[in-house]
Amino acid sequence: QVQLVESGGGSVQAGGSLRLSCVVSGYQYNTFSMGWFRQPPGKEREGVATIYTGTDRTYYAESVKGRFTISEDTGKNTVYLQMITLKPEDTAVYYCAANCYGLTTNCGFWGQGTQVIVSS
To answer: Which of 31, 75, 93, 94 registers the highest number of CB atoms within 10 A of its CB?
Structure first.
C-alpha cells in the first residue's frame, strides 16, 4: 500500500522559512515522479514543484521560483520542499503526491496534507 506522509507545516511570519518533508512507503521510491501541490483557502489545488526522482529534473510554478526548492533523499525515501521568503499568499494546505504529470494535479497517489500559514 502506497503511503505518503507529510510533515513540517506550521505558522510563520512573512519572510520566514519552512521545510516540508514527505516520507514515501509502499513502493520503490525511484519509480515515480514526486510533486508538491497546495490548495489555498477557497481555491483549487495547484502544482508547486515536481522532481523526477533520481534525476536533476525539477519544475516549479512561476509563483515560487527562486523561493522554493524541491529535493530528495533517496536513501530515506523522502522528498523535501524548502520554502524561503514566504508570503501570505503562500498560505495553503500543502500536499505531497507521486506519479504526477508535471505540475498538473493528475497524480496517482496523495498524502493527507500539511497546513502552512503565513501571516503578514
So the answer is: 94
